[in-house]
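Sharing a chain and its predicted structure for anyone who wants a worked example. Both blocks are below, sequence first, tokens second.
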Amino acid sequence: MSATAFPDSDSIGKTRWFRLIPVAILVYIISFMDRTNISFAFSGIEKAFHVGKAQAGLAGGIFFIGYLFMQIPGGYLAEHWSAKKFVGIMILIWGVFAAASGIVHTYSQLLIVRFLLGVAEGGIWPAILVLISHWFPAKERARAYAFWIMNIAIASIITAPLSGWILTFASWRALFIIEGIFPFVIAAPIWWLMVYDYPHKAKWVTPEEQNYIETTIAAEQAELPPASSFRDVIKNTNVWKLVAVYFFIQIGFYGLALWLPTLVKELSKQGFGIVGLLVAIPYLFAMVGLWLNGAWSDKDRKYSLHVFGSLILGAITLVLSIYIGTSAALLALVLVSFAMAGSLSYDGPFWTVASTVLPVSMAGMAMGLINAIGNLGGFVGPYLGGYLQQQARGSFLTTALVLGVGLICAGLIMLSIRKKTISSNVSASASAG
């Protein structure tokens, strides 16, 4: 393919980076807040419903069972209907269940509401992945995904101090209700006003930028193998490898993320107000790691290797942090911060691979399938973390070893997805621009 088929990316505007991505970040910040603030409510839930750590972990993890149900439909509807409309509707629905988590009367009701919250939020991730794939060619996509996925780190930075502060003057129930209002007053209005499904629908996109985006993506799609049905998705070997990778990653990441406040509290011997501030530190490390790994992988296109490297970093530093423990609390916190960075920095290159294994018409369902089954690890991780701590009488070392093994398994499987199997022709052609 000739270089003239691609407009010069340096000569066109970059408005989409500053208009689209920040809105997507904001929406998912609130989404992530409503699913992870339960980590600050664990002790309150244990006392209110007279349950142990394993049951508290189940309340945190059951979200991911519900999360399964809208993944593939969400990706499909985003591609074949409208990502804007689908996400806009689901924001309002998830807000209802997020706030309802604070008014339940029994442990069983809490499980049901958290399950339904997972259903409501389930399709949003693949829908936004699809939206980004409409706006960013493959050669920019690792950076675009990394930029957007910073929402996880930013959400945690905001959630931890905010949740800790709320708990200094209110109950865990008030925590859910207060933060459950945010989808209605912040996320929904901004999303409906600012987001568009395609460049040609947005008035703020210049003709040059629109031409660059749509011409480049069309040429990239022409290089991909044909796929016309969901059968083509489930027959694709790389899709199932990515499912396995994502499953093991989510065991490690959510096992760490949802028990992080408890871990930091044990290391620091501080109250929740201070713990909320300390928990933000690992996510600052993660933001830096996300951007550096995304930018680096877009340059050399060794996406699988970048996923592997970040996960190995996460596994090793997590185990070391727990092994050191309170004997060197500051060093342990630094190591936990590197563990969180490693557990998140894989995201940009990973989803770039996932978005290029099939044509765009099928990519939404492929990413939905990966996110759906892979996120079962988000159920396993918190529950397993709570169970192992309960068996070890509060020690996190066995938990850290198991979570670390999950990250290492994910990295090793990712190495089996070779560069040439993820559309090397597309990468070469796009580079010609």
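Comments welcome. The chain has a mean pLDDT of 82.
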